[in-house]
Write a structure and sequence with these properties.
Helix content: 25-40%
Shape: globular
CATH architecture of the largest domain: 3-Layer(aba) Sandwich
Radius of gyration: 20 Å
Strand content: 5-15%
Distance between the termini: 49 Å
Largest sheet: 7 strands, parallel
Strand order of the largest sheet: 3-2-1-4-5-6-10
Length: 310
């Protein structure tokens, strides 16, 4: 069935991959963003999206729209501007929900975050049954936005993805790739902590599953690749894709932690040295089938950058 879909934040990392996928799926896509993207097919209709830190009227964007996929937001996870983070990631949702109600939108898909369930580390696998425990202003705003959607009258699906990776990913994933591409051995061979990641291809397929599927209606789902991966394997798989040996030195984790503390990157140790495993079985039981494994996805990233010096 062909749907008329509004994608907000359409020029971002996820949106740039999602818009072409939706068009290929036969849907009519209205791409809302601050600027146009060269990644979109000609069939996509671009509309300007204002700075969400200021109120505005959503109604013109929603004319004849069946489904809204709300990706737009302020992605910074630090607390440097909690007021703006709240306005963009929470307050803007209130106006969107009201406008969706007025235009009888069939479904609102809200892109939230696995961070609403936990901080950057967890001793046990995280699931939707766990009480939310956001740590940052970003994740607190995301949880509040979820509450607005739940209180509204628009049919919805809320997705809580873990860190999404792909060829043009930003922030922490980009840092991981830069490290893996360095033509030197890395001191991560003994880091066996496990992390759940999410390939961009798998996120796109999860969104597609939720467009008009009854099993995903009015539900909240964590989204992650089928299996977590160790930190050492992350680097090994990317380097394998680059056509290189892993070259990971078995430095004791305590020394890695101390070195990161010395250079002022204790936050990086949380991501490298501690577990964060997500149980995404709820969405799989609803019929979602991830397309790629984390190992294959990371190798594809490495291959996309081409071979480097051994």
């Amino acid at each position: 069935m062909t749907l008329r879909i509004l994608v907000t934040g359409a020029s971002g990392f996820v949106g740039s991959a999602l818009v072409p996928a939706l068009v290929r799926g036969g849907h009519r896509v209205r791409a809302a963003s601050r600027k146009q993207s060269d990644c979109w097919p000609a069939e996509a209709e671009w509309v300007h999206l204002w700075d969400l830190s200021s109120p505005a009227d959503w109604s013109p964007l929603l004319i004849d729209v069946d489904v809204v996929i709300h990706l737009a937001g302020m992605a910074h996870r630090t607390d440097f501007d909690t007021d703006k983070i709240d306005r963009v990631n929470r307050a803007a949702i209130a106006g969107l929900v009201v406008a969706c109600e007025q235009h009888t939108v069939k479904r609102l898909i809200l892109m939230s975050s696995a961070g609403v369930q936990s901080g950057l580390a967890s001793r046990a696998a995280v699931s939707e049954l766990d009480p939310p425990a956001p740590v940052t202003a970003y994740d607190r705003a995301k949880l509040a936005a979820e509450g607005i959607v739940l209180a509204g009258r628009v049919p919805y699906t809320i997705l809580r993805p873990v860190v999404v990776y792909g060829r043009d990913a930003k922030a922490n994933v980009a840092q991981l790739i830069r490290l893996a591409r360095l033509p030197v051995p890395l001191p991560f061979g003994s880091l066996k902590s496990r992390r759940s990641l999410l390939a961009i291809e798998n996120l796109i397929s999860a969104i597609a599953k939720c467009l008009d599927d009854e099993q995903t209606l009015n539900e909240t789902f964590l989204v992650a690749d089928p299996e977590p991966i160790s930190i050492s394997s992350m680097f090994a798989q990317i380097r394998c894709g680059l056509g290189r040996r892993p070259s990971l030195l078995p430095i004791p984790p305590v020394l890695v932690r101390e070195a990161l503390q010395i250079v002022g990157r204790s936050d990086l140790w949380t991501r490298l040295g501690q577990d964060f495993v997500v149980d995404a079985s709820k969405l799989q039981k609803a019929g979602w089938c991830p397309l790629v494994s984390t190992e294959d996805g990371l190798r594809m990233i490495g291959a996309s950058y081409g071979p480097r010096s051994r």
